[in-house]
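stage 2 :: seqdesign
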């Protein structure tokens, strides 16, 4: 057996023994040993994509939904560079990703050899760990090294406490294909008793015990840990819960879904200063919420890994691996005040949305309401997730996800497809037209590839809608060209190129029917950017006027 085949066979086998179930491959020559080893491994689900960027984001979506490492494999050169955006997102959002890049051997580097670049620590600090595996050799001791390395890579990606991407760079000398000879200088097997090395996890940390208080608030942001336990504890303590949609805590009687508008009202924010705020995950959608956090006298951040804690407002007074929220004696006036304001704002918002026609925030609200229990909704990182944050009513029974680590618009079609392939149940996506066009290659699926049950709802406002809500909109002369960026693309033709089923929704009454079906399909909803900006202004004015009346 040639060394390249031996390394690939052992490495893939050990990763499977550690728990790997899904591998995404972008085709290439130098990565042939890995590709053939994966193809021959019946315990793996294989996904092949022609575009490395789409491949890496597909793996990101799989790992994000399952919580287990997914692997992505490519050839050498710029193929590996195209993984970089997905690696960054995985690093920022804590997604366990195994990045296996094939490489030329050292003697070809720096010589001008074809498809050879410097791949050592290619992704910089975006990875949790990097290893240059070394050119495989036919000598004793290699199997123990490869299996030990594979186990360490898998466990470092998984965490616990700090999951994220791990990069293994694998230089191969030719020959790259199996030679028909199975002999090797030592046994290649890893034994019958599971992984080569087992990771023993430490016991749960001792939680920080807070003094009892009724005037507390639980804030749930992106990537929040142990959400249900903390939401239940906040409920027992009489605390309101301010949860971003993808945080997973927007359900139940304590969920305050209109906090963006409440905290944007100075008199409400001043009158509802808490004694303590406990933050799970990383909040980042609402500027009023972030401004309010800066003024909190006690802000406790829950971070499973104390080397990396989210604190974008620099307002944390304590950071703990876990927190115990105690039940305090007293009345529920604090919670009732939040709920009265929330109910007033919600009624005003719904009235505006119901009269707004086919608007983007109404689409977001109505889409969530229309989804069946057990559904997954993957949301775009720009306006779609913000529309959900401002318009979504509390509800149970769905899983909502978004790529809010680096909050890019790239790779979202592929990430949604990966998340759908990792989800047991129907899946949906809500993304913008620029995100869709940025990753239209994600629709390219070969006839033998696993196909997700995913309905992608694309909001088409012919450009970058979020800029109409930002200060750039005031720069009228260059705005449309350099910020609005109209594209004029007919999305129906884009979907036709890949034979993806397509529906155009022209009235929101058509949405429930358009969502029906199975497999990969696209629903387009066309909106107007300027009209959308006006709807957002009406939402803000109506909600805050209603809250003022409720406070009077």
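stage 2 :: out
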């Amino acid at each position: 057996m040639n060394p390249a085949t031996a390394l690939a066979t052992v490495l893939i086998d050990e990763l499977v023994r550690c728990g790997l179930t899904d591998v995404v491959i972008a085709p290439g020559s130098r990565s042939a040993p890995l590709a053939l080893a994966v193809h021959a491994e019946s315990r793996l689900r294989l996904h092949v994509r022609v575009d490395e960027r789409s491949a890496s984001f597909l793996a990101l979506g799989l790992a994000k939904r399952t919580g287990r490492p997914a692997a992505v494999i490519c050839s050498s050169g710029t193929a590996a560079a195209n993984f970089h955006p997905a690696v960054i997102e995985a690093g920022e959002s804590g997604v366990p990703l195994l990045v296996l890049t094939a490489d030329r051997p050292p003697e070809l580097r720096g010589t001008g050899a074809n498809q050879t670049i410097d791949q050592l620590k290619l992704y910089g600090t975006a990875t949790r760990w990097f290893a240059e595996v070394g050119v495989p050799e036919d000598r004793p001791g290699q199997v123990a090294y490869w299996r030990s390395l594979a186990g360490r890579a898998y466990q470092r990606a998984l965490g616990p406490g700090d999951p994220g991407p791990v990069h293994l760079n694998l230089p191969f000398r030719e020959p790259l294909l199996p030679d028909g000879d199975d002999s090797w200088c030592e046994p290649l097997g890893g034994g019958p008793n599971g992984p080569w090395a087992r990771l023993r996890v430490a016991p749960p940390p001792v939680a920080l015990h807070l003094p009892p208080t009724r005037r507390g608030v639980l804030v749930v942001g992106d990537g929040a840990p142990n959400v249900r336990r903390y939401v239940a504890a906040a409920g027992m303590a009489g605390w309101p819960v301010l949860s971003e949609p993808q945080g997973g805590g927007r359900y139940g009687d304590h969920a305050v879904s209109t906090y963006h508008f409440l905290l944007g009202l100075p008199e409400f924010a001043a009158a509802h200063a808490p004694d303590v705020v406990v933050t799970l995950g990383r909040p980042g959608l609402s500027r009023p919420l972030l401004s309010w956090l800066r003024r909190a006298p006690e802000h406790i951040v829950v971070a499973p890994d104390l080397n990396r804690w989210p604190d974008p407002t620099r307002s944390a007074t304590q950071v703990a691996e876990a927190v115990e929220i105690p039940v305090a004696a007293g009345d529920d006036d604090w919670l009732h005040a939040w709920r009265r304001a929330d109910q007033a704002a919600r009624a005003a918002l719904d009235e505006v949305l119901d009269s707004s026609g086919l608007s983007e925030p109404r689409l977001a609200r109505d889409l969530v309401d229309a989804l069946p229990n057990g559904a997954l909704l993957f949301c775009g990182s720009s306006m779609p997730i913000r529309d959900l944050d401002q318009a979504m009513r509390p509800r149970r029974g769905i899983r909502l996800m978004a790529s809010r680590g680096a909050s890019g618009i790239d790779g979202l079609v592929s990430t949604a497809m990966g998340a759908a392939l990792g989800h047991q149940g129907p899946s949906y996506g809500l993304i913008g037209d620029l995100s869709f066009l940025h990753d239209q290659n994600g629709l390219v699926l070969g006839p033998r590839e696993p196909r997700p049950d995913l309905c992608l709802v694309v909001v088409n406002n012919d450009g970058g809608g979020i800029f109409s809500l930002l200060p750039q909109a005031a720069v009228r002369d260059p705005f449309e060209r350099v910020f609005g960026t109209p594209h004029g693309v007919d999305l129906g033709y884009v979907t036709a190129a890949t034979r993806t089923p397509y529906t155009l929704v022209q009235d929101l009454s058509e949405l429930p029917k358009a969502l029906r079906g199975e497999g990969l399909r696209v629903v387009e909803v066309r909106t107007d950017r300027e009209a959308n900006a006006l709807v957002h202004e009406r939402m803000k004015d109506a909600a805050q006027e209603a809250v003022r009346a409720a406070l009077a």
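stage 3 :: structure notes
- The two ends are 82 Å apart (CA to CA).
- The first strand starts at residue 22 and ends at 25.
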